[in-house]
Amino acid sequence: FTRLRLASNDPMAVETVWLPARFVPGLEQSELDGSLYELLSDRYRIVTGAAKVSIEPVVPEPRIRELLAISADQACLRIRMIDSDVRGRIIMIANCVYRGDRYQLSADISGAAFTAGRARRAG
């Protein structure tokens, strides 16, 4: 399915998501207005255990630009995700385009991302 995500009635993102039908029997379009992660957890008892994420700048195709109400030269962020549940099964693949003029990316990095060897070289 593809969803147009809004904030204060302004178009912010176009999300295209693929879910294995066997994991979400009876899923209706009317249920897709809120958080997909909450829906998966609450209704289907599916909890994401890990995700592979890639982020890249793009100038989106005409249909996406139209949905987002942006100009032809407006850059966006494309976020692609492959989510797995706690048992390692792929539960979702998403290709999302977010307005580049409305989002900021940030990350908290801790612990395992740094080894003693790297810390010595940097210090």
Number of helices: 3
Gyration radius, to the nearest Å? 18 Å
| Weakly predicted, low-confidence segments | none
Oligomer: single chain
Overall pLDDT level: 89
**Large-scale geometry:** globular
Helix content: 10-25%
Structural class of the secondary elements?
alpha+beta
Strand content: 35-45%
Strand order of the largest sheet: 1-2-5-4-3
The end-to-end distance, rounded to whole angstroms, is 48 Å
DSSP E strands, number: 5
Order of helices and strands: EEHEHEEH
Q: What does the largest sheet look like?
A: 5 strands, antiparallel
Question: Which short descriptors sum up this protein?
Answer:
123 residues, 5-stranded antiparallel sheet, 19% helix
Task: Annotate the secondary structure layout.
Layout: E1 2-7, E2 10-18, H1 36-44, E3 48-58, H2 62-68, E4 76-85, E5 90-99, H3 116-122
Antiparallel strand pairs: 1-2, 2-5, 3-4, 4-5
Brief summary:
The chain has three helices and five strands. With 123 residues, it is α+β, with helices and mostly antiparallel strands.
Could you characterize what this model shows?
With 123 residues, this protein is of the alpha+beta class. Helices cover 19% and strands 37% of the residues. It is built from three helices and five strands, in the order E-E-H-E-H-E-E-H. Strands 1-2-5-4-3 form a five-stranded antiparallel beta sheet, with helices on one face. Strand 4 and strand 5 (90-99) form a beta hairpin. The radius of gyration is 18 Å and the shape is globular. It starts with a strand and ends with a helix.
